[in-house]
Automatic annotation (TrEMBL):
<dbReference type="GO" id="GO:0007015">
    <property type="term" value="P:actin filament organization"/>
</dbReference>
<dbReference type="InterPro" id="IPR017904">
    <property type="entry name" value="ADF/Cofilin"/>
</dbReference>
<comment type="similarity">
    <text>Belongs to the actin-binding proteins ADF family.</text>
</comment>
<keyword id="KW-0009">Actin-binding</keyword>
<dbReference type="Pfam" id="PF00241">
    <property type="entry name" value="Cofilin_ADF"/>
</dbReference>
<protein>
    <submittedName>
        <fullName>Actin-depolymerizing factor 3</fullName>
    </submittedName>
</protein>
<dbReference type="GO" id="GO:0003779">
    <property type="term" value="F:actin binding"/>
</dbReference>
<feature type="domain" description="ADF-H">
    <location>
        <begin position="5"/>
        <end position="139"/>
    </location>
</feature>
<dbReference type="InterPro" id="IPR029006">
    <property type="entry name" value="ADF-H/Gelsolin-like_dom_sf"/>
</dbReference>
<dbReference type="InterPro" id="IPR002108">
    <property type="entry name" value="ADF-H"/>
</dbReference>
Amino acid sequence: MANAASGMAVHDDCKLKFMELKTKRTYRFIIYKIEEQQKQVIVEKIGEPGQTHDDLAASLPADECRYAVFDFDFLTVEEVPKSRIFFVAWSPDTARVRNKMIYASSKDRFKRELDGIQIELQATDPTEMDLGVFKSRAN
């Protein structure tokens, strides 16, 4: 278990699942949660390859922060299929201030544990991470 600068540990499973998403494309997305009591980041939920952006959005709680990784498939202007790995920092306006602070202070350290993130997206409400946002950031 890697110990983060913020005092937050990262469960080995977090990196393992990310590597599987990156190299084998085993998952469409991974949602990570900080267990405040244990002071560690854990895998809360994984999305199967057949799942979509809608499933990712529906998996994020309305009033709690989360980190998520999303393997986004898209077509370039030349109609070439591509994919990008997004890191999403989900910090809804309705989350408790303490919750937001813990996620904000641990984010960079956690993100560094996941080797292969291509684009970071920060969202405070669902409109900031709708499909159009992913499309425009991916190209």
